[in-house]
Amino acid sequence: MWYTTLFAEAVRKMKSIDEGSGNLLDNCLIMYTSYMADGGHGTDDYPIALVGNAGGTLKTGRQLSFPKGTPVANLYVEMLDRMGAKVDSFGESHTSKQQRFSGRLPGLI
After folding, report:
1. Are residues 45 and 80 in the same domain?
2. What is the largest CA-CA distance in the chain?
3. Backbone phi, then psi, for 31, in 5-degree steps?
């Protein structure tokens, strides 16, 4: 809870910083997560929040779910793309036995 409170405070501060064409948060992409999905140190189905508008490349204000086993590396491909690093794959986005969506995550835009 303490970490989440600090994170929320940082997000509020970023939103208050004007950058002319928007605020600092509009131009950022921040991933906030926890490894405590199942009350232990599980690696399946853990929550991830993407905060910021990524320079207008991310549709915000919604919750998305993907099939169980979708590699989290797919998310990293999407994040790298929004940061200007055009990559075709990352980690196991294409090599996982549960590979999905051609290594991407549809619907983020």
Report:
1. no
2. 46
3. -105, 130
Residues 40 and 78 in one domain: no
Residues 60-81 have pLDDT tens digits of 899 999 998 899 999 999 999 9
Same domain, 6 and 51: yes
The model's pTM: 0.85
Q: What is the CA radius of gyration of the chain?
A: 15
Alpha carbon distance 99, 84 (integer Å): 24
CA distances in angstroms from 65 to 27, 33, 74, 99, 108, listed in the order given: 24, 15, 13, 16, 11
Expressed as residue numbers, the domain containing 25 is: 1-56
Beta strand ranges found along the chain (DSSP E):
30-33, 48-51
